[in-house]
Amino acid sequence: MLQLQAALFYMIVFFQKGFNKMFKNLYEEKPKKVLITQEKIFQRIQELGKVITTDYQNCELKLIVILKGAMVFGADLIRAISLPITIDFMVVSSYEDGTESSGKIKILKDLDESIEGIHVLIVEDIIDTGFTLEYIIKNLKDRNPASLKICVLLDRPARRRFNFILDYKGF
After folding, report:
1. Mind telling me the catalytic residues?
2. 73 neighbors 1 (Cβ within 8 angstroms)
3. Is the pLDDT of residue 102 over 60?
4. Which of 86, 104, 155, 171 lies 20 to 30 Å from 42, alpha-carbon distance?
5. Model pTM?
6. Mean pLDDT of all residues belonging to the chain
7. Which residues pair with 154 in a beta bridge?
């Protein structure tokens, strides 16, 4: 639980101070203000897990966790879902230098198995401009899943450049 709160704090710092500076000062900086408490994060993930469990009863569900940012959220969400599921991972990058998305998307690690005919839930930590997620959605749709939905912990719609439905949203 403490790791989740720490991860959320560092995700927020990422957008406030920049990726490079965040890692230089990872152990030196203290939170200035807690925006979402550990308890609220835990409660919301449990709620998302219950809704996902209900929505995917009697379906073959595969969670695709977008690494590295969604690792902790994905692990907590998996524990909150009361269904047999399979899990796969993608590593996708659109950040060449600094914290601004370049718009040039690279798949650094692709899926290990086919998703054809399977219900897929993309698990992402933060949706900002949407460049990366838009690319992932198009890429995965071309692989013919039975359905494709999105679950995100933190939504930042103010900078959004693409319109898409976030089926499951934490905050």
Report:
1. 128
2. no
3. no
4. 86
5. 0.78
6. 85
7. 126
